[in-house]
Task: inverse folding
């Protein structure tokens, strides 16, 4: 994978990644701010700003003129907000790259943020909040992070609260953007069928006037736990959704590759241990998976499933059994190799398109200020031994790191669920 990084005088970073064998190009602009940078009163403002950027600029006065221009050349465009980043992108036939760049730069730098549009969008976002409430499979992730990082910025939902969303004024957006939407907190990546030099020059033309400010700092997350914890969102659902996980490592931790491999062996695919035990052998769930989340300062590994209400306890016990087993006995070389090949294969397939290459590069730059190529990552994955997996499993699978989040018609009478959480 070839890429080049250029830093402008104002601190803005440009990443260009020319690709062979594709006819598309993707323009992706990412800013290093998300919900964890907000105060409680600002909850949801990062996400609200992302919505407002598609509502009109001086040059493209309303939402329709933005979408029409991109639709007319068959482009895909969207944006997303995370806990520590917000991104805007357009992907299209490389012949129309200039259009993509012009539109994305325009919305990023010149959005009008009109009062009447802000008022209208409040209703849209409140409906989005309601929508998530009706999606327990998604919502249980928020319940889990809220349990892990209670009363801290990282534990709050990205979308914010109805109360904060309906209270925002135009000036709130302007103040927030002045602080965070600055040159040295912004990365622009263009990947695909491109001419590296001319693209970098065009990006510079658009973004060189952006102001610089002091680097934003995250509120460090404090992790204090000495016994298993449970959080239940009591709700009438057709299925009980649960996440059972453990506190683990941040994005810089040297054992993060071993952790990912451990997660794949446990529940990363259809031949993983949890899939075979929970779904194939016991028929407890349709979906069961495990995954890893790494933030800059903290992280976790968790298994997630949806089961019949009456099978909640049985499922918890089955998952715990697998956690325990992998922390007591070394995985076989064959199983470890299979997990390595799986991660590598998935990554190679995932990096076939221009938008996936752009996000692969830009996310690393935003989160770690450094980029590892797939080759460098593969080398580190190859070095992980069965001993490393066992050592990591022993470190994380201990009762005092266990956390369980549940959505369904359940009450935790006399802490019966906590009593189950043994390893």
Result:
């Amino acid at each position: 994978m070839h890429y080049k990084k250029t830093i402008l005088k104002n601190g803005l970073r440009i990443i260009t990644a020319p690709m062979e064998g594709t006819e598309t190009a993707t323009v992706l602009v990412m800013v290093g701010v998300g919900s964890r940078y907000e105060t409680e009163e600002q909850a949801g403002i990062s996400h609200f700003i992302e919505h407002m950027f598609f509502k009109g600029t001086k040059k493209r006065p309303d939402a329709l003129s933005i979408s029409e221009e991109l639709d007319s050349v068959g482009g895909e465009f969207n944006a997303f907000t995370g806990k520590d980043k917000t991104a805007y992108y357009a992907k299209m036939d490389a012949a129309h790259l200039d259009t993509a760049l012009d539109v994305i730069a325009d919305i990023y730098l010149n959005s009008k943020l009109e009062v009447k549009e802000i008022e209208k969008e409040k209703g849209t976002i409140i409906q989005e909040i309601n929508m998530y409430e009706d999606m327990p499979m998604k919502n249980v992730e928020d319940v889990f992070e809220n349990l892990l990082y209670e009363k801290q910025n990282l534990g709050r939902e990205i979308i914010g609260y109805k109360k904060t969303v309906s209270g925002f004024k135009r000036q709130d957006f302007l103040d927030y953007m002045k602080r965070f939407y600055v040159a040295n907190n912004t990365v622009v990546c263009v990947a695909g069928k491109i001419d590296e030099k001319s693209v970098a020059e065009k990006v510079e033309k658009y973004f060189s006037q952006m102001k610089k400010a002091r680097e934003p700092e995250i509120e460090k997350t404090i992790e204090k736990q000495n016994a298993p914890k449970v959080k239940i969102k009591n709700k009438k659902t057709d299925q009980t959704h649960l996440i059972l996980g453990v506190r683990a490592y941040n994005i810089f931790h040297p054992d993060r590759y071993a952790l990912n491999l451990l997660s794949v062996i446990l529940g990363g695919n259809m031949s993983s241990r949890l899939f075979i035990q929970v779904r194939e052998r016991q028929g407890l769930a349709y979906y069961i998976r495990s995954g890893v989340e790494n933030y800059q300062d903290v992280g976790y590994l968790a298994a997630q499933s949806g089961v019949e209400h009456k099978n909640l306890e049985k499922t918890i016990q089955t998952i715990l059994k697998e956690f325990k087993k992998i922390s007591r006995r070394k995985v076989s070389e064959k199983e470890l190799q299979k997990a390595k090949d799986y991660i590598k294969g998935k990554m190679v397939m995932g990096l076939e398109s221009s938008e996936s290459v752009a996000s692969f590069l830009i996310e690393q730059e935003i989160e770690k200020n450094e980029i590892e190529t797939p080759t460098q990552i593969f080398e580190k994955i190859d070095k992980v031994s069965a001993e490393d997996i066992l050592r990591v499993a022993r470190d994380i699978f201990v009762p005092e790191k266990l956390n369980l989040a549940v959505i369904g018609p359940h009450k935790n009478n006399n802490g019966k669920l906590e009593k189950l959480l043994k390893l």
User: Anything to note?
Assistant: The longest strand covers residues 285-294.
